Amino acid sequence: MTTAGFDYTITRTLEAPVEQVWAAWTRADQYARWAGAEDVVLDVRPGGAWSSVMVIPGGARVPLSGRYAEVVENKRLVVGMSVPGREELALMTVDLNGDGDRTRITVSQTLGSTEERDQSEFGSNMLLDGLTAFLSAL
Question: What is the DSSP string of the chain?
Answer without folding.
Answer: ---SSEEEEEEEEESS-HHHHHHHHH-HHHHHHHHTEEEEEE--STT-EEEEEEE-TTS-EEEEEEEEEEEETTTEEEEEE--TT-SSPEEEEEEEEEETTEEEEEEEEEESSHHHHHHHHHHHHHHHHHHHHHHHT-
